[in-house]
Design goal:
The N and C termini lie far apart (about 40 Å). The protein is globular. It has an eight-stranded antiparallel barrel with strand order 1-2-3-8-5-6-7-4. The protein has one domain (about 5-160). Residues about 1-30 have low confidence and may be disordered. The longest helix has 23 residues, at about 5-25. It has one helix at about 5-25, and strands at about 50-60, 60-70, 75-85, 85-100, 110-115, 120-130, 135-150, 155-160. Strand 5 and strand 6 (about 120-130) form a beta hairpin. By secondary structure, the chain is mostly beta strands. The chain contains one helix and eight strands.
């Protein structure tokens, strides 16, 4: 394989990686929640929807797919994420409830998760609490395989596709 053949696929990935970096950097300009959601945050609330999600991390970034079920429709989505810290080689398979989602337009965008352990995380049961600037909260549980060296905070950018 020639050097040029190896470079072309990377060049095609640059716009997507740049867009993800800009979007996640934009989180600083559009404040995300500073309080980590937890069981008290959703006490007494009925779930608005349900999410399933798979994400693969390599280094400091991750990509994945998922689906939101909301008001009888299923909305597939794509996501990109970052691990705040040295990085990870892991796979997350999670699902759970969505709260405080009144309109489908509130779902897309950046989410922050701050409940992870600081240090080395290895394969285990996952318990994620995510919140976006619209106040939408996701409580997701599932499995984490691999390892991550993290400062305990992750960010995700979710983009909905057309409902199925």
């Amino acid at each position: 394989m020639s050097i040029r053949a190896k470079v072309i696929p990377f060049r095609r990935a640059i716009p997507a990686l740049a867009a993800a970096a800009v979007a996640l950097a934009g989180c600083a300009m559009n404040p995300l929640p500073t309080e980590v959601p937890n069981a008290r945050t959703i006490a007494g609330l009925e779930p608005s929807g349900r999410v399933i999600m798979t994400e693969l991390f390599a280094g400091g970034g991750g990509v994945g797919t998922g689906a939101l079920t909301f008001k009888g429709k299923t909305y597939p989505f794509k996501l990109v994420g970052t691990v705040i810290g040295p990085g990870a080689v892991e796979k997350l398979d999670v699902s759970g409830d969505v709260y405080k989602l009144d309109d489908i337009k509130q779902f897309s965008g950046p989410y922050v998760q701050g409940t992870g352990a600081i240090g080395l995380e290895t394969s285990a049961k996952g318990d994620l609490w995510l919140e976006n600037k619209a106040g939408v909260v996701m409580h997701l549980t599932g499995t984490q395989t691999g390892a991550a060296l993290s400062l305990g905070r992750d960010e995700l950018l979710i983009e909905l596709e057309k409902a199925k």
